[in-house]
Design a protein that fits this description.
Elements (H helix, E strand, L loop, with lengths): L7 H7 L11 H8 L10 H4 L4 H49 L6 H23 L15 E3 L9 E3 L11 E3 L2 E3 L17 H50 L6 H23 L7 H8 L1
Antiparallel strand pairs: 1-2, 3-4
Helix pairs in contact: 2-6, 4-5, 4-6, 4-7, 6-7, 7-8
């Protein structure tokens, strides 16, 4: 289970009611998902006429898409949280660097401030390195990609820029490219070196790093909002329609399918409500529980 829907009851209690926007029909939702595999080229009229086995195949294809989308959304959320923390750390480092650039700053104070900057750099490295996708792959090392589902024929993706001390804060000083890694003690931009030019360049590197981190955070949030959230809303709407509109017989197999459908439907509905997908609010999800 993900961080979004680990506990259904807790998730529902934490949601605030809001006015639902225009509700997409299951037919529209399934068409927009444009899934491959068992759900490829299947119209809504086809779905409602399927037997229990056919309904289960379609439902599982939709739920597999929900899992992939949810993994991407969760990974993006972890990255955004880490990037926000890194922004805070860079702000702290900027304050310390500025203090070391003031006239009258003593050698001892400068060294203490630089030690704090060194600790901040290590924390930034750790915060970025700890961000991983649900399958354990690093997201901020330059290889990370967020994908808007895996089962769609129209999949969108976002390649994540690296967030490392070597890739952030890259500026040119005297014809040489330096980075955030060079703001550390005994490196070219050591703010306790006694050289005001080093402090000025360190501040430029820190400002550049903060700008890059903020831009990446915004890119991820935009991808979540414009790509992941609408598709998760369509998944929930399609699953709701499959659960409420298909007719299953009373055989043991059909009853087992119905139970699985309910579980999948509630998972997708809770998730859609938690991320405020269009047309989904607390009341709509609660109505599915009764």
């Amino acid at each position: 289970m993900s961080q979004i829907s680990t506990n259904l009851t807790a998730a529902l209690k934490s949601l605030n009611a809001s006015s639902a926007e225009k509700v997409t029909t299951p037919e529209e939702a399934l068409r927009r998902l444009d899934l491959r595999g068992p759900a490829a080229d299947v119209t809504w009229d086809d779905v409602v006429r399927l037997d229990a086995t056919g309904v289960e195949r379609i439902a599982r294809a939709v739920d597999d898409e929900r899992i992939a989308l949810q993994d991407a959304y969760d990974g993006g959320g972890q990255a955004v949280t880490a990037l926000a923390r890194i922004e805070e750390l860079l702000t702290e480092a900027q304050t310390l660097a500025a203090a070391n650039g003031k006239s009258g700053a003593g050698v001892r104070t400068q060294r203490e401030n630089q030690s704090k900057i060194d600790a901040i750099l290590k924390e930034i490295q750790t915060a970025a390195g700890d961000v991983k996708s649900p399958d354990g792959k690093h997201l901020l090392d330059g290889t990370g990609v967020l994908v808007a589902g895996r089962g769609s024929r129209k999949t969108e993706s976002l390649k994540l820029d690296p967030v490392t001390l070597e890739s952030l804060g890259r500026i040119v000083v005297d014809g040489r490219t330096v980075s955030l890694a060079d703001v550390a003690r005994r490196k070219p931009l050591d703010t306790s070196s006694g050289q005001r030019s080093d402090v000025a360049d360190a501040r430029r590197a820190l400002a550049s790093a903060k700008e890059s981190v903020g831009a990446l955070k915004e890119q991820i949030q935009t991808f979540q909002s414009e790509e992941l959230r609408p598709r998760l809303g369509d998944v929930a709407t399609a699953m709701e329609g499959i659960y409420t509109s298909t007719s299953l017989d009373s055989t043991e197999e059909a009853m087992a399918t119905a139970r699985e459908l309910r579980t999948m439907m509630l998972q997708s509905a809770t998730l859609a409500t938690a991320i405020a997908a269009d047309g989904w609010d607390r009341e709509r999800t609660l109505s599915l529980l009764t």
